[in-house]
Amino acid sequence: MKISILDQSPISSGKTAEDALEASVKLAQFGEQYGYTRYWIAEHHDISGLACSAPEVMLGYIGARTNTIRIGSGAVLLPNYKPYKVAETHNLLATLFEGRIDIGIGRSPGGSAEASLALSDNFLQQMSKYPESVKELLRFINQDFPSDHLFSKITASPQPRESPQPWILGTSTKSALLAAECGTGYAYAHFMRNHGTSIVEGYRDNFRKNGKLARPNIIIAVSVICAETTEKAEKLALSQFLWAILSSKGEKMIKIPSIEETEQYTFSEKEEEMIHKMKRKMIIGNPREVNQQLHALQALYGADEMMILTITHQYEDRLRSYQLIAEELSKNK
């Protein structure tokens, strides 16, 4: 089973955005050391607990400090930008880091409505045009506009020897069918919506070979916390749960709480129910339990690859989680 990393670059309490971004670099290096296939970093805006608003900048920084692991955006939020600029940016990265660049494409705003307005005056219009924008981006990457098209006369410079590998990310039937129509890989965010087997099946059934991809390629992104014991993993997960709960209340300047902060907080009955729902989308446990559940989820979706998102207060606990997972999976090879 291939495993990869999804990083939201979380900022822990007592830490700064600079700390979080440096921890992201270490995570990519760590993933390379332990045999992870790819590392993707997400785009978020106006969210105080997440540090990365510009994946393309971080990818240049991370690419220069790694050697072999594939790196990419997970995702670049296309309605915020013109496809031509996105193609140029990722072609530049692919020129610098040959054979290592993925371009994950998403349609969500990635932040508040005000942030979306600040990024693009016509965000809602761009959302409605998202399928057309995706196809335009892919044509710029593949340099295959019809000869009579206005954009056939321009190039998304520089032209790399190996183009960025495109992926469409999502949690809906629309995103799955768009990926199938365009012949790209599809990454399903199980950590956001854990009932997606029919969506992924729709992608597989309707896949057309329109691009360079010979067959459907499926990544399932799942939230995982692994520790030496189940009890420790459950304890570490409380930081993510409390952060999500406080963020849902609209509280500003919320960072990932420490274990001590979670122990001082009294969860209401409603919040306990929220935690129960969040757990249904996650894998939490010791290495053996996590290994079993990852394989079960892979089989359920028929996935080619599992992409793991891990958020803990201590960055060392996050690295340890990824290490334990990789070591446990290697026992079964």
UniProtKB/TrEMBL annotation:
CC terms in the record's Gene Ontology section: cytosol
SUPFAM superfamilies to which the protein is assigned, alphabetical: Bacterial luciferase-like
GO molecular function annotations of the record: oxidoreductase activity, acting on paired donors, with incorporation or reduction of molecular oxygen
Domain Luciferase-like stretches: 1-301
Family of the protein in this entry: To bacterial alkanal monooxygenase alpha and beta chains.
PANTHER family documented for this protein: LUCIFERASE-LIKE MONOOXYGENASE (PTHR30137)
Name of protein: LLM class flavin-dependent oxidoreductase
Organism: Metabacillus sediminilitoris
